[in-house]
Amino acid sequence: STGRIILGIETSCDETSAAVVRDGREVLSNVIHSQIDLHQRYGGVVPELASRRHITTIIPAIDLALEQAGVTRDDIDAIAVTEGPGLAGSLLVGVNVAKTLALTWGLPLVPVNHLEGHIYANWLSLPGEEPVPPPEFPLVCLVVSGGHTELVFMRGHGEYELLGRTIDDAAGEAFDKGARILGLGYPGGPAIQRAAEKGRLGRFTFPRAWLGDSYDFSFSGLKTALLREVEKYRRPGPRKRRQKGDQPFLTHEPPEYAPNMPVNDLAADYQDAIVDVLAEKTIRAARETGAATVLLAGGVAANTLLRRRLTGALDIPVRYPPPILCTDNAAMIAGAAYYVQRRGVKAGLDLDAHPQLPL
Ligand code: KG4
Ligand code: ZN
C-alpha cells in the first residue's frame, strides 16, 4: 500500500479499539470492542473491570484491525497510542502493547492526546465514503465527552488555545447522571436523546449556568434541579426512604418512581438545557474569534439536537464526525498521530501513561 499507514491503539476508558488509518484521513479499519455489557449494571465505568477487559481484548482487536484493513505488519509505518487523559489502569494496557509492538516491529511510537484524537476525527472518512475536505482554520472546536467539556480555538494543526471548560461535571457526565436519575440506564446520552424525542418540551424549567461572559461551563446545578423534580415522583417505602446525606444518583440501583412520572418530558427539557448552553457558547466563540469553521467532537457530538442547534446558526460550516467516530475509537488516534508525527513528536520506549494530560 502507499501513503503513510498508522496503526492506532485506544484503551483510555471503556472501549478497546485498534484501527488502521492512511495519511491521517482515510480509515482502512476501526475495530471497537465495547464494554457496555460489563459496566451497565453499575451505571458507570468500573476502572478495575475496564483494564482487565482491555488486557484480554486488545491483541485480538489489533489482529482484526490489520485483517480488516487488508494490510500486514510490513505495511505499517508507525504505532500510535493514547497516552492520556483517561483511567490509569486502562491507559497502561494500550501504552504497554504499543511499546511492545514498536519495539518488536522496529517502528516509531507516536503518543496521542485523547482529546486531540477526538478533534481529528473530523479529518477522517470511513471506508467506502468519499473523503471529506479538511476543515479550514482558524476554527473553534467543542470537545464534549463523558470526561470532558472543552471549547478550543485552533489557528493551525497542533495549536490549541483553551477558551473555556467545565468547572464541574462534563457534558456527557450530565447526560449519564441525568439518565441514572431518570432510571434510563447507561450510557445516558443516547438514552436521554431517545426519551427526549418522545417527550414534550417546555413543561419544566431547568437552570442554565451562563457564568457571565466566560466560555466555561457548569452542569452540576442542572443535575441537582432534575433530581429535585424527580424526587416528587419518588415512591415512598420503608427500604427506599431517603436518609440524610443520601445521593440517590450515585447508587447502582435506579430508584422506584410513580408510574405517572413524565420521564420523556423531563428528558426533553433536561437535554434542552444542556444543549442550549453548549450551542450558545460555541456560537458566540465562533463569532468572537472570527472562526472559519466550527467542529464538534467527542461522544456528545453524536447528539442530534446539538448538531441541529449549531447547523445553520452561523454562516460558516459546522462539522461533526459520523457517530461511530464521535465516541471513543482508535481511528481518531491513528488519524491525529499523522499530524502529531508531522510536527516531530515521538515517544521513547520509556513512555508512561498520563491520566491527567491536558490538551
Ligand atoms: O467520547 P466518549 O465515547 O468517551 C469519553 O471520552 O468520555 O463519550 C462518551 C459520552 C458518554 O457520556 C455518553 O453518554 C455521551 O458521550 N453520548 C451522548 C450521545 N452518545 C454518546 N450524549 C448525548 N447524546 C448522544 N447521542
Ligand atoms: Zn473520549
From TrEMBL:
EC number: 2.3.1.234
Main localization of the protein described in the UniProt heading: cytoplasm
Family recorded in the similarity comment: Belongs to the KAE1 / TsaD family.
Cofactor: Fe(2+)
Entry binding sites for Fe cation: H114, H118, D328
Class of the enzyme per the UniProt entry, highest EC level: transferase
InterPro entries linked to this entry: ATPase_NBD, Gcp-like_dom, KAE1/TsaD, Peptidase_M22_CS, TsaD
Record's subcellular location: Cytoplasm
Record's catalysed reaction(s): L-threonylcarbamoyladenylate + adenosine(37) in tRNA = N(6)-L-threonylcarbamoyladenosine(37) in tRNA + AMP + H(+)
Residue ranges, annotated region (Disordered): 233-258
Annotated gene: tsaD
Protein name: tRNA N6-adenosine threonylcarbamoyltransferase
Record keyword Magnesium present: no
Keywords tagged on the record: Acyltransferase, Cytoplasm, Hydrolase, Iron, Metal-binding, Protease, Transferase, tRNA processing
Cofactor: record remark: Binds 1 Fe(2+) ion per subunit.
